[in-house]
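Re: folding output
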Amino acid sequence: MRTNKKTTCNCNPFDFLTEEIIFTILDYLNDDPFAKKSFSLTCKAFYSIESHHRKTLKPLRAELLLRTLHRYPHIEHLDLTVCPRIEDRMLNVVSLACKDALCSINLSRSRFFTNIGLSSLVSSCFNLVEIDLSNGVELNDLAAAAIAEAKNLEKLWLARCKLITDLGIGCVAVGCRKLRLICLKWCLKISDLGVQLLALKCKEIRSLDLSYLQVIHVFYLSLGITDEGIAAVTFGCPDLEVINIAYNDKVTDASLISLSRCSRLRVLEIRGCPHVSSKGLSAIAVGCRQLMVLDIKKCFNINDTAMLSLAQFSQNLKQINLSYCSVTDVGLLALASVNRLQNITVLHLGGLTPNGLAAALLACRGITKVKLHASFKPLIPKSLLGYIEAHGCVFHWRDKAFQVEMDTKGWKLHFGKSAEAP
């Protein structure tokens, strides 16, 4: 009698899959790091596949950086925000390990590196397009000059790099012609000159943060941003889409009239600019028809006139902060006619009444989020609030005290002075 012997196959089904297909499978595990870990521990082949697939890395300990980068040789996005001590030698390790694969690095919570480490990084990682150096309070113009060697850089964050001056920004402007985003928030030694150099050399800028650059006088120098700097931006970067000039006390309506030439502007933040008024904002409404996000908190001279202009010309507006403005029931009702308006913050409006607020809320058909002062809650009928919530709106009630000016103590701390100093 003839018997059939069963032959067992020890082939791994994954052997028949291309690396591209396996990478696609691993892409579905991005939200579950433990699943990827389990995959890599299955066998040596999976271990190798997973190490080549990983593109993003956020190491927990700086001392293990060399070993980790050796394990993952194709990292494109390196996040070092949980490694507070990153020295120049560690940046040298990164440059040697990642080379041209690295596209972005986040050093916003790291310190102790200098221009030497940055120079090593950008010279080897010449495909870098994003660098975040926020909170680099010890970085100076030499560091900015090192960054200028990153010729392909598109996004640069320098928030609170308070030792960098116009000279350093000039180096960046000359070297990084492809910049599309730059953040100079709290860079207190930057003046109109630095902004003018950026506008002259970096024509591709789409997003610019110049907030908290109030004019200060140091010896014979006058530092800070004025209408001249903003005018240079509008002429040099006509395709600007996002700009933040909050808390600049020398910015006036002239700046807003200049910005109205940027027809692609989508986001405008001018909170804490006491010298802008409805005249400037009306010019923005007419010239910037694509405006979607507007923050005019503590712009005390903006009133109903500007709201009427926004209602007529800014039909793409989705989010607005009106806190502390001089807007009344009339202005808020006019604004309610903007069909795409979804998010509105209304705190400390002296001319606003419960009846006016209720009417405006009923008129805002697409509203999804409203931030109001808690004092209004008992003054609006519960049935009305329930009706609006049933249509998808979420109310956030705030019980904040009225604040007129920004904390001067905060300015002293950011400028590197003791809060108790005279």
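--- second protein (sequence, then structure) ---
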Amino acid sequence: MTGGGVRRQVAAPTPPEAPTARVQERRQPRERVRTVARAAAGILLLIACYASGEFLAGWLRLPVPGSVIGMVIMFVVLCLQPAQISDRIVVPISEKLVSLIPFLLVPAAVGIVAHIPEVVRDAPALITAVVGGWLATILVTALAAKYLLGRIRRKG
């Protein structure tokens, strides 16, 4: 500037302030209520699918366990409304249940230890079942992967 004037700096506009503590306190209970409601809905959905499967297995006298039929029902439900149900309801409660699996397996392990004589007596059959199931799982997984990769290559 000419004339020896003083140059003033203009402050940039400040961003809007963060919500006050009082507003944040009001939001937290609402989020907790939503979280609990979604967890309850997830548990109810899982129980409803399981109970429906058990009912159908008993009513139709199917040789398939009701829990397997319940999983098929859950699969159909998720196929019909995948994003609305799975992301908001099923995933959060499923993640929580998966984190609890070690605690759910402890009673089974204790039960096996309590029946060591029977386990030793039936060891050949148990080993055959475990190895056979393991091999069948690997075979089915390999065949499914081969099939799906072939479909992807044909489309791509």
